[in-house]
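job 3f2a | input accepted
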Amino acid sequence: MSEIVVMGIDPGLANTGLGIIEFNESEGIVSITSDVINTRTIDLEYKRLYKIYSKMIDIIDHTKPHIASMENVFVDRSTMSSGIGVAYAKSAIAVALAQRDIALFEYEPSTIKMAITGNGRASKEQVRRMVKQRLGISERVTQHVCDALASALCHIQREGLL
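job 3f2a | predicted structure (162 res):
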């Protein structure tokens, strides 16, 4: 495939970050787009999940990604309450991707950090700095978008395209 569009996703019930990278074998990274799906905490959970799902469908139909990638969600006792919301959001996202027949690849946080910075224990700020540098981004990038772009970059790199 000479051109590939990878959608990186940072799942969250309140904020889901999206980073879409279009990559061409001869030119490298051709374009970068990003978005954040925000839901209101006052809305019922099922409505928030439906908003994530329906916005994902709209964005998928608009950007036409070939592949999606995201950080694998890890939940322990200390992150249980936020982790459950993230897992629900991830499920809504996975259903939208499956409906459009888009493969989803998941990576451990340390794998993404290693791919981006060369250090599997890098800080969020180190990852942000390297994502911006590698993609030539000068403007401010939200943490959700940065995490999504890092996931997409990780996938592109692991596939040997970069």
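job 3f2a | The chain is about 45% helix and 25% strand.
job 3f2a | closed
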